[in-house]
Amino acid sequence: MAEAIYSRNTEAISQQIADSARRSLPTLTRRRIHGRVQFPGKTTAVVGMRRAGKTTFLHQVRADRLRDGIPQERLPFVCFEDERLATLPADSLGLAVAEYFRQFPAPTGSATVTWCLDETQAVPGWERFVKHLLDTELGEVLMTGSSAELLSREVTTSLRGRRRQVWTIRSASMKHCDTKAWSSRPTPTRSLGESGLTLNAPTWTGSS
């Protein structure tokens, strides 16, 4: 049974990495993101309400990098909500790195691999994997997931000083199918209510 699960996980991750390198990027409604997104040595956590365009934003970043001349194989996209990864334990997330470099040997020079990790909350303990990527300089990390999970005290502690947040909020005007971006500052804070969590108050960086 364990071997079958391992094989299924490996196959799923292998296929996602291969697909992200060769398939055309999805057509998307571009999100208006203002301000800095890339932070050396830190992961960018894309947070927001459901259907706010978090996954779309990851693909938008990939499209921008591709347009800037970054090879598509340096922009791996892995979604952990894949049903084949339902039993993937956090200590097996290294499969993604091993499988990526099996398919695409380590780039030379200062080339960076931009890991786009979608729905990370599907794998409890994922923050240790992200910290490993940052500690070993295996690339830049952008990720989406449950806002409650990404803003939890446990994750904040584990990735202290290694994470920046980009907020995506659906436009109030349905005439403009767009998203406004928010960035967080250290203070002040406000309560999330019954969840008992605390987050940095967002400061809007978009245009009206």
Average pLDDT taken over every residue: 74
Q: How are helices and strands ordered from N to C?
A: HEHEHEHEHHEEE
> Which range best describes the helical content: under 10%, 10-25%, 25-40%, 40-55%, 55-70% or over 70%?
25-40%
Enumerate the strands of the largest sheet in spatial order, edge to edge or round the barrel.
2-3-4-1-5-6-7
| Cα-based radius of gyration, to the nearest Å | 17 Å
Strand % is 15-25%
- Total beta strand runs: 7
Task: State the end-to-end distance.
Answer: 55 Å
Low-confidence stretches: 173-208
Shape: globular
Number of helices: 6
| Secondary structure category | alpha/beta
- Largest sheet, if any? 7 strands, mixed
Walkthrough of the structure:
The structure is a single chain. With about 210 residues, the chain is α/β, with parallel strands linked by helices. About 30% of the residues lie in helices and about 20% in strands. It is built from six helices and seven strands, in the order H-E-H-E-H-E-H-E-H-H-E-E-E. It has helices at about 1-20, 55-65, 95-105, 125-135, 145-150, 155-160; strands at about 45, 75-80, 115-120, 140-145, 165-170, 180-190, 200-205. Strand 2 (about 75-80), helix 3 and strand 3 (about 115-120) form a beta-alpha-beta unit. Helix 1 packs across helix 3. The model is unreliable at about 175-208 (pLDDT under 50).
